[in-house]
């Protein structure tokens, strides 16, 4: 299976980022849990060979903040043009300005194998697997769809994307989820 190292990309997942983050665990501790869980076989293959979704340890669930709010008529949304990383094309980011984060039902770690990261020179280490992202999945949601902007970047092979093709159902599920939930702008 191999050791799981921390990719620099995941380090953006901190309080105020609108992304899942841990209240108390370091990225190295999160990567260690991903490695432990993967060795135990608690993973599924991702959207392409060399991408794995590892289910985090249930006893660590309370250590993570789920950044999503359920959108309703009382939620105030804000949008701005942002870039994920230097050099990437900007996109329109939508966040909830108000609302209470939903409770997480589980944690998923997204791991990329070294050769997949090397395709675009995005590896941070020489280890076989790297932690790319951490997702707190809202309670009651079976599968967190990838965001449509990320899917677009991947499918069109834009800078920062990892080559992939998605079915029309995957696109529809992504758009549906992101019409029902928004990340809370907790940077205040």
Secondary structure layout:
Layout: E1 4-6, E2 21-22, H1 27-39, E3 43-45, E4 51-55, E5 64-65, E6 68-70, E7 77-82, E8 91-96, E9 104-113, H2 114-118, E10 129-138, H3 148-155, H4 168-180, E11 181-184
Parallel strand pairs: 1-10, 8-11
Antiparallel strand pairs: 2-5, 3-4, 4-9, 6-11, 7-8, 9-10
Question: How would you characterize the overall build of this protein?
Answer:
By secondary structure, the chain is of the alpha+beta class. It has one domain (4-182): Protein of unknown function (DUF3228), domain 1 (YaeB-like fold, 2-Layer Sandwich), CATH 3.30.2310. Helices cover 21% and strands 29% of the residues. The protein contains four helices and eleven strands; from the N terminus they run ββαβββββββαβααβ. The protein has helices at residues 27-39, 114-118, 148-155, 168-180; strands at 4-6, 21-22, 43-45, 51-55, 64-65, 68-70, 77-82, 91-96, 104-113, 129-138, 181-184. A five-stranded mixed sheet has the order 1-10-9-4-3. The chain has a four-stranded mixed sheet with strand order 6-11-8-7. Strand 7 (77-82) and strand 8 (91-96) form a beta hairpin. It starts with a strand and ends with a strand. 29% of the residues are buried.
């Amino acid at each position: 299976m191999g050791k799981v190292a921390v990719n620099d990309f995941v380090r953006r997942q901190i309080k105020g980022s609108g992304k899942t983050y841990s209240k108390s665990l370091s990225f190295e501790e999160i990567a260690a849990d991903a490695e432990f869980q993967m060795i135990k076989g608690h993973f599924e293959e991702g959207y392409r060979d060399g991408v794995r979704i590892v289910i985090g340890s249930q006893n660590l669930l309370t250590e993570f903040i789920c950044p999503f709010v359920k959108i309703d008529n009382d939620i105030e949304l804000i949008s701005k043009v942002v870039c994920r990383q230097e050099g990437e094309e900007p996109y329109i980011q939508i966040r909830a300005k108000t609302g209470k984060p939903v409770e997480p039902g589980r944690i998923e770690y997204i791991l990329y194998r070294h050769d997949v990261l090397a395709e675009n020179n995005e590896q941070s280490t020489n280890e076989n697997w790297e932690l790319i992202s951490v997702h707190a999945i809202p309670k009651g949601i079976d599968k967190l769809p990838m965001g449509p902007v990320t899917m677009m970047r991947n499918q069109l092979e834009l800078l920062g994307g990892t080559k992939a093709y998605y079915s029309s159902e995957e696109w529809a599920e992504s758009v549906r989820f992101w019409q029902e939930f928004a990340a809370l702008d907790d940077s205040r």
